[in-house]
Amino acid sequence: MTEYKESGALVKKIREESLQAGFHPRVLGQIETPKGPVPFLSLSRKIKRRAPRVLIAAGIHGDEPAGPHAVLALLESFPGKWPELSGVQIEIVPLINPSGFDLRQRTNVHGVDLNRMFGAAAPPPEIRLLMNDYRRRQIDLFIDLHEDVDTPGFYLYELAPSEESAFGPQIISDLRKAGHPINDSSVIEGMPASSGLILRTTRHLPRFFRKGAPQGLYLKKLGARRTLTFETPPRLPLEDRVNMHLLSLRTVLTSWSF
Ligand SMILES: [Zn+2]
Questions:
Q1: Cα 195 to Cα 158: distance, rounded to the nearest angstrom
Q2: What's the whole-model pTM score?
């Protein structure tokens, strides 16, 4: 697969593919990057009947390219290879941190970790655009695509209504079957983990903090019933990591009852 290194070229390609795939691309604003302004895209595909709304976000950390490339691969194979998505309203924010993407760094060009700024009193432009947009409707399921330089294999965070209803175990099982490596540590990022899953139930939701929160917690606060964050290992080829994201997404959409 082609790896894009410049946010402007990647966003242009994603916009073209989204139109081909029947999505409606909206430009929420322009984001400054070292190479000039880049359109901040949000894609949606509305279906006529009332249906659950799934939001997929990618590229909030600039040095985690698998997420935005997974979005591109999804659009390129849509709708033919995605019957699971026919019954849902899908929205995609493909590249939240274009300046960080260009600089291959986690933070934006001003050194801000955007995934700690949701709900902040004075958020940076990338997050202000999203907060204004997210407040307008109910998201039922939120999926955030990330990578983790320290991990030897895939793992995920899940915020679910109960332990029994978690999708994580099925995601991990499907990834193992496909031959993908899993991070089996009992502690990941300082948190207890089991078989590649860091699970929290909504009963144990951390207090929302005034200085700003990660995107998943913010959407949970706005009413999302479940949030999932996928983490892939950058030491593997891009194509493998993209496939891990897409397979995990497929498992979630298959597991989810509408
Ligand atoms: Zn990340």
A1: 13
A2: 0.96
